[in-house]
Amino acid sequence: MDLGLVGLGKMGGNMRTRLRNAGHTVIGYDRNPDLADAASLAAMVEQLPSPKVVWVMVPAGDPTRQTIRELADLLGEGDLVVDGGNSKWTDDQVNAEMLAQKGIGFVDCGVSGGVWGLENGYALMCGGSDADVAKIQPAFDALKPDEGGFVHAGKKPGAGHFAKMVHNGIEYAIMQSYAEGWELLEKVDLVDNVTEVFDSWRSGTVIRSWLLDLLVAALEDDQHLEKIAGYAEDSGEGRWTVEAAIDNAVPMNVIAASLFARFVSRQDDSPAMKAIAAMRNQFGGHAVHTEPPVGADAHPAP
Question: What are the backbone dihedrals phi and psi of residue 106, each rounded to the nearest 5 degrees, phi first?
């Protein structure tokens, strides 16, 4: 299939490559001209055959809202917009209604896989009508892993991003558990080989996971995480998960606590947050705070 892809950063650029490797034609646009295939958003849309399909992979919030508003003026009846960023599900409802007034379809898609998605495939959670999902299904099939990894979460706008939001909330809690366990093992003068302990858990145990693999990779690179400050960002989706839990009276003690732990990390240099920051950097290439070398500045807050 032919599609436009807006936003060619860490994930968007790799997605373009994976789609092309599967035989699809992708015309990409990015504000960085070194990455773009088209000189402007309008030029990208002009090169697409009808019905046109445009996938948006830009930061959530105003950048996504503005991009979709621009696309609403460039696309026409029967065309389709896919929001693959980390937008809040309530934005999807607004965008879907606005596009529908012009006969333009809309699919929201939570994408997980980080910088490893090019090789391993991306987990995809989408929301939208059966007809709109069918239009973009060949791209979903190319992006997802060889087995599993795709779900049409619901037909209402926002279903995909809501599912991805809960996924990220769970991710917060799992990472926090690993991080606290690492801090305790480091603290007690009893275990000599902390990294080897975590490595041993990767096979045969009930807590083995890809996040555990990534933590071991980070520890092998920096055994005591001395290069990383105990400060961890939150993407926003953990906050939205807790807000949704409050709105629906669903107790989320562990996920809420893991979110608040990240807030605490911004006040004190937390050993556990070193592990959180290290895992985030492993799977998403997220910036970490590092101690400054002599005569230089520390890595600034993202």
Answer: -145, 135
Residues 67 and 107 in one domain: yes
Query: Catalytic residues, which ones?
Result: 164, 171
Which residues touch 127 (CB under 8 Å, ≥6 apart)?
89, 92, 107, 108, 109, 152, 153, 154, 155, 156, 157, 158, 159, 160, 161, 162, 163
pLDDT bin (cut points 50, 70, 90) of residue 298 is very low
- Strands 2-6 and 53-56, by their bridges, are parallel
Task: Please state the domain count of the chain.
Answer: 2
What distance in Å separates the CA atoms of residue 69 and residue 296, rounded to the nearest whole number?
42
- pLDDT (tens digit, 9 = 90+) per residue, 74-88? 999 999 999 999 999
Residue where a domain stops, chosen among 156, 182, 200: 156
Structure tokens at 245: 């839990």
Tell me the whole-structure pTM to 2 decimals.
0.85
Residues 10 and 142 both lie in one domain = yes
